[in-house]
Amino acid sequence: MGGSKKPKFYVVWSGGTPGIYTSWADCQKHVQGVKGAKYKSFDSRREAEIAFKGNPSEYIVKKKAGEKPKQVYDPSVGLPITNNSIATDAACSGARGPMEYRGVWIETGQELFKMGPYEDGTNNIGEFLGIVHALAYLKQHNYDQTIVYTDSRTAMKWVRDKKIKTTLDRNHKNEELFVLVDRALKWLENNSYMNPIRKWETKAWGEIPADFGRK
Predict the structure, then answer these.
(1) Which domains does the chain have, with CATH numbers?
(2) Closest to 134 in 3D by CA, of 187, 83, 201, 93
(3) Bigger pLDDT: 132 or 54?
(4) What are the binding positions for Mg(2+) 2 in this chain (predicted)?
(5) What is the DSSP letter of 33?
(6) Sign of the CA dihedral running 141, 146, 147, 149
(7) How far is CA 114 from CA 27, 56, 117, 210, in A?
(8) Distance CA 113, CA 94 (A)
(9) Which residues of 18-39 are buried (b: 16+ CB within 10 A; e: fewer)?
């Protein structure tokens, strides 16, 4: 369920061991669960080196609107767990069309993965793939308590049943996408996981942090 992406450099000003790391997994070891940890990603080593020597307050800014969950309608829903959780979401152009999906760490807004766009897909398939991608990543890195949030009950059911129910026909345009679906279903059949999969309560918390912002 992997994919290529541009390298990033992670500066840890305050945490387990301050320094510059070349993967989010390594960075997370020094900041997860550390009260007051200060860290940020950069697109180049040069930027990271300059930032590491500077004041973190000059680089760390408040999260954009929508990334910080807040209650709007129903206090009984409570608030999501944000300090050890991933949000996944998909975006599709129309009922069927180019589709992409991604996952982000809720606490930091850091993008964990982004896949697509894939031609001739659906939002439900993207939501399903996002959950399985997150589960596979977490299992690979031994994050067995990390929560996976999704705003799709349909995708949650597909993962639970280890079976998808879609009216999308398999064709030459979306063959690559269906190969990913086959791989995801096979992963679910052959792997167990402890990570809770929870519904993101959009009405109470606003858009899920992995939202593509195209509504």
Answers:
(1) 9-58 (3.40.970.10), 85-199 (3.30.420.10)
(2) 187
(3) 132
(4) 127, 151
(5) T
(6) negative
(7) 19, 27, 9, 10
(8) 23
(9) eebbeebeebbbbbbeeeebbb
User: What number is the average pLDDT over the span 70-86?
Assistant: 72
Is 74 among the annotated ligand-binding positions? no
The answer to whether 89 is a known ligand-binding residue is yes
Q: Which amino acid is at 84?
A: N
% of residues, the chain, pLDDT over 90:
52
Quote the Cα angle for 131-209-213, to 5°: 105
Beta pairing, strands 85-92 & 97-105: antiparallel
Tracing tokens 């977490």 back to the chain, one arrives at 138
**Residue corresponding to tokens 């369920």:** 1
Is 169 annotated as belonging to a binding site?
Answer: no
Query: Are the C-beta atoms of 146 and 138 separated by less than 8 Å?
Result: yes
Residue 190, token pair as written in the block: 């052959």
Alpha helices per DSSP H over 37-112: 45-53
Q: How many CB atoms lie within 10 A of CB 119?
A: 16
Half-sphere exposure (Cβ direction) of 98: Cα atoms closer than 13 Å? 3
Segment 15-73, tens digit of pLDDT: 888 999 998 888 888 877 777 788 888 888 888 888 888 887 777 654 444 444 444 44
- Half-sphere CA count of 203, side-chain side, radius 13 A: 5
User: Is residue 127 a known part of a binding site?
Assistant: yes
